[in-house]
Amino acid sequence: MDWYVYVILCSDGSLYTGITTDLSRRYRQHAEQKGAKYFRGRQPKQLVYVEKNHDRRSAGQREAAIKKLSRQEKWQLIGAPDNLAKELI
């Protein structure tokens, strides 16, 4: 099963990083505030970064690595040419 690592730009300007097997379902859950508690009090604005072809373990490891990046490093990642979010928007 393919796992995705994703980053969402939130209504307050923050960046949320997560993993899922179904991007559209997970984004919808965040928008309906049925997903992570992080989205209580803020809304997802846009899916800005996506990686795929992970298994559960590698997706979790990559999520943790991205969460450790500075905000500037995350924006550099978002601007990378291999960002799949550009294809999904």
Strand order of the biggest β-sheet: 2-1-3
Number of domains: 1
CATH architecture: 3-Layer(aba) Sandwich
Q: List the secondary-structure elements in sequence, H or E.
A: EEHEHHH
Our count of helices gives: 4
Q: Oligomerization state of this entry?
A: single chain
Q: What is the gyration radius calculated from CA atoms?
A: 12 Å
Residue windows where pLDDT falls under 50 for at least 5 positions: none
Termini gap: 23 Å
What's the helical proportion of residues? 25-40%
CATH top level is Alpha Beta
Strand content: 25-35%
What would you call the structural class? alpha+beta
Shape: globular
- Biggest β-sheet description: 3 strands, antiparallel
What is the CATH topology assignment?
Answer: GIY-YIG endonuclease
pLDDT averaged residue by residue: 94
Overall number of strands = 3
Polypeptide structure, described:
This protein has one domain (about 5-89): GIY-YIG endonuclease, CATH 3.40.1440. Helices cover about 35% and strands about 30% of the residues. It is built from 4 helices and 3 strands; from the N terminus they run E-E-H-E-H-H-H. It has helices at about 25-30, 55-65, 70-80, 85-89; strands spanning about 5-10, 15-20, 45-55. Strands 2-1-3 form a 3-stranded antiparallel beta sheet, with helices on both faces. Strand 1 (about 5-10) and strand 2 (about 15-20) form a beta hairpin.
